[in-house]
Amino acid sequence: MKASLKFYGVATWKGFRVPSGSSGYHSLGRVVDLAREVGGESHGFRFIQLPFNLAMPEARTLSNQTLGGHQVSTLGRPLGWG
User: Fold this and answer.
1) Are the C-beta atoms of 59 and 74 separated by less than 8 Å?
2) Rounded Cα–Cα distance for residues 69 and 63 (Å)
């Protein structure tokens, strides 16, 4: 029986919680573009994991991702953008 990886994601402590241009910043749009480049439209990238709580609200409050020319927060839009 051949096992296959159906879905995957990325986990980062600060990559989605810092301003764009900062050391360690991750562009969610770029990650999705890479997933499409490698796996086509049926790529399995579906999940992100990062701290999000009262002490670390940046995933929702910091507009550090670009979507359609607009700045949005990491959790401001679903991953299926584009």
Assistant:
1) yes
2) 12
